[in-house]
Amino acid sequence: MASASISPIKFHAPIPGTLPAPERELRQRFLKEAEVVPGGDRISQCLQCGTCTGSCPVSYAMDISPRMVIALFRAGQIEEILRSRTIWICASCYMCTTRCPQSIKITDLLYALKRTAIDAGLYPERFPVYLLSRNFVRIVNRYGRNQEMLLLLFYYLRRNPLGLLRMLPLGLAMLRKGRISLFPKKIKGIDAIRKILGASKELELPREKGTVPYTEGAVGYRAVG
Amino acid sequence: MEYIYYPGCSLESAGKPYDESLRAVFRALGIGLRELEDWNCCGATMYMSVDEALSMAISARNLALAEQAGFRDLIAPCSACYTVLVKTNRFLRESPELRAKVDHLLGQVGLQYSLSVKVRHPLEVLVNDVGIEAIASAAKRSLEGVAFAPYYGCQIVRPERGFDDSEFPTTMDALFQRLGARAVYFPLKARCCGGMLMTTFPDVCLQLVKDLLECAVENGAECIATTCPLCQVNVEAYQKKVNKTFGTSYEVPVMYFTQLLGHALGCSEKELGLDKNLVAWKAPGAVLAA
Fold first, then answer.
1. What is the value of pTM for the model shown?
2. Min CA distance, B289 vs chain A (Å)?
3. Which residues of A touch B208 (CB under 8 A)?
4. Which of B46, B67, B180, B221 measures 20 to 30 Å from A111, CA to CA?
5. A106-120 and B52-68 helices cross at what angle (nearest 10)?
6. Minimal Cβ distance to B201: which of A128, A145, A178
7. Are residues B168 and B215 in the same domain?
């Protein structure tokens, strides 16, 4: 009789040197993102020592530890990483990056993974961090500066309207102290920001978004990039 | 001496007292601080999650404007802005591909940036350019009797190994000890407060904030001095929530380091925005003999 699996990560029958097509596509996207990070290629030097996981103040809340992220990348299971909450829970304190004996830019690589996940449309619906990031980008594109109150308002309305009510006492206290700016104002150079924005879209190669289907194909452990 | 000043979005709202006290400190020391004309958001950690080249271009616009205005040192008091701007400089220097893209994007709006602007944190400028001794001789009040926890947070000491140790920085300790205050033993001085996780994963973040408060209080701190607007909000404004969640009863004043410094330099409570803090700080009154 088959016993229940202990590990949350599924074990696939290895076919050396091969990766299923969706995995290969994700891998290429990720490597493209990681290429831009200075020293991004140091990921191949990982010793699996676990210093990153031990240094991380939030690793206890992650489903895949930072060390396992690199192990999974090597095992050709990027999709597992992109579907985890690990990449989104990182608070960018850079402790892992500073301590890594192999100088791997772990925090920056997690950013690269986030961008890969967004690009491929692989994140849970209405996921808090993505929601916050997207609203932040919208506000900055519109006003040129972030407006804390608008950001939190948009966020809570989409995510959890009741949460807004719970934030009210704190919001009022901050308002009384003059620490909330109520009226967003645009910077003069907002047209410049928008122009930069428009021009950056032209730089991107056209890509279909969210085309990677979730599959459970075979993964080759030798297929390390 | 005149520096160009990049306040950052936080210092316009929740971090208003940081902005006020920073200006007051520089005024008291007679150092020029000119706000960067029409600055925009640096992109913070959020923009970077969505698009890298674009986030670099947006933050490089500020550096290009500072360069155009003829300044070499830009002061960024917010830790997130500081890290992002420093990182922009480094990435542009080290990644030719990114540099080409950003140059192209800035060119679209008639700007160019030749990497000549150095991004600096006010704490480092005060200690290295002005000097602790010069500050001490300008002091009007003693900080005798103030037991504080020096809280640096993550992003001014990491990832760039900039002006202080990345795990056990001491710049602020030295500055305030010279002015009479006592820095308590605070091993979590460079630990993360969770930043924006307070909004996205509050359970995780409240735990981090509770650890910080516990460590500071157990070691005898009566207040916490911080260098980051995000840390200040998380540790100060969410204390009530921490108390409710963990059954504790913390009521620790959390100040921007410029408020503490400004007090020593003789600035008024109003100038320093001390009346805007949620947990009031009882300032020591000792006046130094001239």
1. 0.88
2. 34
3. 57-58
4. B67
5. 120
6. A128
7. yes
